[in-house]
Amino acid sequence: MMNIFGRNVATVGPVEWKRHRKIVAAPFNENTNKLVWSESLGQARDMLKEWTSWGGKGTIGIARDTRTLSLDVLAATGFNKSYKFRPSTEPGPDEARTYREALMMTLDNSLFMMLVPPRLLKVPFVPKTWSRIGQATSEFKSYMTSMSNEERRLLDAGKPGTGNLMSSLVRASEEEQERKEIAHSEGPKGLSVSEILGNIYVINFAGHDTTANTLAYAMLLLAANPLVQEWVAEELEQVLPDENSETWDYVKLFPRLKRCLAVLRGTYLPWSDGPQNCPGKKFAQVEFVAVLAQLLQSHRVRLVDAAEGDYREAQERILRVCEDSEHGLLLRMKNADQVRLVWKHV
Q1: What does the alpha-carbon distance between residue 85 and residue 72 come to, in Å, rounded to a whole number?
Q2: Whole-angstrom Cα distance, residue 111 to residue 328?
Q3: Residue 310: what pLDDT?
Q4: Are 238 and 315 in contact (CB under 8 A)?
Q5: How high is the pLDDT of residue 186?
Q6: CA distance linking residue 242 with residue 130, whole number of Å
Q7: Strand, helix or coil at 336?
Q8: CA 342, 260, 267: angle at the middle one, nearest 5?
Q9: Strand, helix or coil at 345?
Q10: 150 touches 140 (CB < 8 A)
C-alpha cells in the first residue's frame, strides 16, 4: 500500500529489505542530527513566539502547529528547503505551490492515495479535492526527482553533495552499487530512482506525523503535570549555558538533556527494537529534545482556565482530550482544540 512513489524499506521482502535498510540508514548520522538540532530550535523559537502572543486567552491549534514544525524540520534537513514557521491560525495556499505545500498535502492524504490509484486523480471529471491531491502528488514527485537528479549530477562531476537526506541517500546507493560491482556480486546493487523516491516518501511519512503527534500529546500532558515541567526545567537550568538557543551546541548539550528524553519516552514509544529498528530513531529524539528544551527553558504551560495551584480539574479535562484519540495510520487526538493552553514566561 505504501508503494506510492516506489518500492521501499517498508514494503519489500526480507531479502531486499537488507539492501534497502543499509542504504536508508546511511543518511541518519551525526551531521544530519546537528541540522535537526539547529532547525528544531529555530522552529520552536518561532512557534513559542506565536503561542505567547495569545496571552491569557490561550492558544489553539497545538497539534496542527507541531505538525508544521515537524514538516519544516524535515524539509530543511531532507531537502535544504528552509521555511519560516507558519502558525495554524495563518491560512496557507490551497494549491501545492511550494515544496512544503506539496509535501503537506501528500502526507495528509497518504491513506487516500494508498486506496485510490494516482492515475484516477488526474482525470478531468474527479472532484476538485481529488484533483488538488493529484496535483500535490505530481509536484512532490517532481521536486524529489529534480533533487535526486541534481545529486547524481554533482556526484558524477566529483563535487560534494548538498549534505541533506536526499544527498546522503543517493550517495549511499551509489557506494553500494560500486561495492557490489567490485565484488562481482549478483542481484540488485544500489537503489533505482523509483526506490530512492519511495524511500524518501517513507522517511517523510514515518518521521512527520509520529514526531508531531508525540509533541502534541506531550504539550497537553505537561500542562496537566506542572511538577514534571519543573523537573525538566531544573535540568535545563543546570545544563544550558544561557537563554540564547542559537548558541546551544548539539554535541555538548543533547547527551546531557536526559529529562527531556525521559518525557519523550513517557509520552510515546514509536520505535521498535531489534534488527528492524527505526533508522530515524535518533533524528526524532533530537527533534523532540530540542523543541522541549526551547519551550521549557524560560516558559511554563497550563490550561487557560486552570486555577493556580489546583490542577485536578485541568488534569481530568486534558486527559479526556488525550484519551479521545483515533487510530488511522497513526494515533492522534480527535480534537486537541477542546482545550486552550497558556504559555507564561518565568
Answers
A1: 7
A2: 8
A3: 62
A4: no
A5: 66
A6: 49
A7: helix
A8: 75
A9: strand
A10: no
The CA-based angle 141-328-136, given to 5 degrees, is 20
Q: How many residues does the chain have?
A: 346
Residues 47/85, Cβ–Cβ less than 8 Å: yes
Distances in Å between the Cα of 118 and the Cα atoms of 81, 110, 128, 227 are 26, 11, 14, 49
Query: Could you give the CA distance from residue 10 to residue 20 in angstroms, rounded to a whole number?
Result: 9
111/182 Cα distance (integer angstroms) = 41
Question: Rounded to an integer, what distance in angstroms lies between the CA atom of residue 287 and that of residue 291?
Answer: 6
Q: What is the mean pLDDT of each successive set of 10 residues along the chain, which is 346 residues long?
A: 83 86 86 93 95 87 91 86 83 58 83 81 85 88 87 86 82 79 67 87 81 92 93 96 92 96 82 66 94 96 72 82 80 85 92
C-alpha cell at 193: 530512482
* String of DSSP letters for 114-143: HHS-GGGGGSTTS-HHHHHHHHHHHHHHHH
